[in-house]
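2024-03-11 09:14:02 INFO worker-7 job=invfold-0412 stage=load source=structure_tokens
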């Protein structure tokens, strides 16, 4: 029967069978039915294959079901005695099936340069005429990387040196309205003794995280020197293996308890392997299949479970009794607890509005004018609101005010935005005195006469200095004071009349027909008495 197949098909079937391919896969790749494949391979009804010699034919090109070309290479001969073979030079059988096998040497060289799979694919296409898909290169690179990877190194630490922390999914609970809710379980494991603490919280916020962490310190009776966490949002603002940006509240918390948070490398869970398994242990052993009446009930159960189950086990790695190792060795090595709890406050980022204020709990607090439209950190409790810049330097502090109210410090208002009335009457009178004594005397008398409304009159009086000389204002104010008129419009008209009078006086020197200057004083008096002061 096999003689009816072309020789290249026979050789292809034999070669793929030698590589361990299934009959179904060989049939899909070659187009030969499985009955013929069994006859070519000489398999019996049980599917066993007799030993055959490796084919010596050159690699055979096969069309797979996707229409792409794969190269099935012949087995590689063993290296000669005394030669050194790199770790990637002899690929496993699974690699030999890949169309990338023909480019094995180039791919290994690229990997030694630490190039990515995408870059290797691009260079193979551009420089070596590769016609396969990117995903084939990606799979080939992954297999080579796994083959050459080194085993993980397990690191143990001294007592009291480290605690590892992680969140997992907690058991459902029933809220006050009778609805079933989800929650999160925080697991804290002391790395030396494997003593653990578990607490469920409704959300993974910074506040809940710190309160649960603080409760773990109280349960342990001390504080570990370092805290290893992943890059959870409650603690880490910007993940960076070398210089992560921590939440400012976390920094203050660590300063209060004398400890240090060390985030792991992003996407590297093995950096906190002790707690990774610990979370799974809590979920599988304590919480799986349970529903609790409330969060409090679930936490009560977890506290009892820690004492009666988790602490009584012999740990699989340390081969020690967890609770006994903690009591005998690690508890005494922990740092002392501070006398007070970490202060309870809330904080969040805020954008300074165009009016120079930020909103905190529905109230408004002023910021220095140079921070307008900038991002700041606001931290508040029941009595005080403190605001910090990006360097976490305090830039403002306010007492809490009622919702809807404003707290505005005078020094936070730009000088260009403070009008004269806000500066007060004394400020206005001081500026008036710079014009002259007659102006000051008129202004003081006007304030007595007009009261509060006189502040705006003072502003108008000062504005006259932009258009007229001090002498002109002084003469007008002197005349107005003598005639007891304290309307700004009277001063304005007197200034205009004085200007006209000066023009007449200049003309008088040239024309003797003009009337004497004394008559003009009487003229001004008649103008005032005629109804300008109303």
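2024-03-11 09:14:09 INFO worker-7 stage=emit residues=534
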């Amino acid at each position: 029967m096999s003689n009816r197949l072309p020789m290249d098909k026979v050789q292809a079937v034999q070669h793929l069978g030698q590589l361990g391919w299934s009959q179904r896969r060989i049939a899909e790749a070659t187009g030969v039915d499985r009955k013929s494949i069994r006859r070519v391979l000489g398999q019996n009804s049980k599917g066993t294959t007799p030993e055959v010699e490796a084919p010596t034919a050159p690699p055979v090109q096969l069309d797979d079901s996707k229409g792409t070309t794969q190269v099935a290479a012949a087995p590689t001969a063993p290296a000669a005695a005394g030669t050194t073979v790199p770790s990637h030079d002899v690929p496993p059988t699974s690699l030999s099936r890949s169309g990338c096998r023909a480019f094995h040497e180039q791919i290994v060289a690229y990997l030694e340069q630490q190039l990515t799979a995408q870059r290797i694919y691009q260079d193979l296409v551009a420089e070596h005429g590769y016609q396969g898909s990117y995903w084939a290169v990606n799979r080939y690179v992954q297999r080579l990387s796994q083959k050459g990877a080194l085993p993980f190194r397990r690191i143990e630490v001294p007592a009291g040196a480290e605690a590892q922390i992680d969140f997992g999914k907690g058991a459902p609970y029933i809220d006050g309205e009778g609805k079933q809710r989800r929650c999160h379980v925080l697991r804290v494991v002391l790395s030396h003794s494997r003593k653990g603490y578990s607490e469920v919280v409704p959300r993974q916020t910074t506040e809940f995280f710190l309160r649960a962490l603080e409760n773990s310190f109280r349960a342990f009776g001390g504080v570990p020197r370092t805290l290893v966490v992943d890059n959870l949002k409650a603690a880490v603002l910007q993940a960076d293996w070398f210089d992560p940006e921590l939440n400012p509240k976390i920094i203050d918390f660590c300063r209060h308890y004398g400890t240090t948070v060390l985030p792991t490398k992003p996407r590297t869970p093995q950096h906190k392997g002790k707690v990774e398994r610990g979370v799974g242990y809590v979920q599988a052993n304590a919480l799986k299949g349970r529903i609790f009446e409330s969060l409090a009930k679930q936490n009560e159960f977890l506290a009892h479970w820690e004492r009666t189950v988790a602490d009584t086990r012999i740990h699989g790695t340390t081969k020690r009794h967890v609770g006994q190792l903690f009591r005998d060795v690690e508890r005494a090595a922990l740092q002392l607890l501070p006398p007070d709890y970490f202060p309870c406050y809330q904080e969040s980022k805020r954008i300074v509005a165009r009016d120079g204020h930020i909103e905190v709990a529905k109230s408004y607090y002023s910021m220095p004018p140079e921070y307008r439209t900038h991002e700041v950190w606001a931290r508040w409790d029941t009595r005080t609101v403190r605001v910090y810049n990006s360097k976490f330097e305090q830039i403002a502090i306010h007492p809490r005010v009622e919702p809807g109210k404003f707290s505005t410090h005078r020094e936070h208002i730009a000088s260009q935005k403070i009008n004269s009335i806000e500066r007060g009457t004394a400020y206005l009178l001081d500026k008036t005195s710079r014009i002259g004594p007659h102006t000051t005397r008129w202004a003081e008398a006007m304030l007595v006469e007009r009261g509060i409304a006189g502040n705006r009159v003072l502003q108008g009086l000062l504005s006259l200095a932009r258009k007229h000389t001090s002498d002109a204002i002084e003469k007008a104010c002197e005349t107005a004071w003598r005639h007891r008129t304290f309307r700004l419009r009277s001063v304005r008209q007197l200034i205009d009349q004085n200007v006209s009078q000066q023009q007449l006086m200049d003309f008088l020197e040239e024309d003797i027909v003009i009337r004497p200057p004394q008559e003009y004083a009487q003229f001004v008096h008649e103008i005032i008495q005629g109804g300008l002061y109303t």
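2024-03-11 09:14:09 INFO worker-7 stage=report msg="The chain has 19 helices and 18 strands."
2024-03-11 09:14:10 INFO worker-7 job finished
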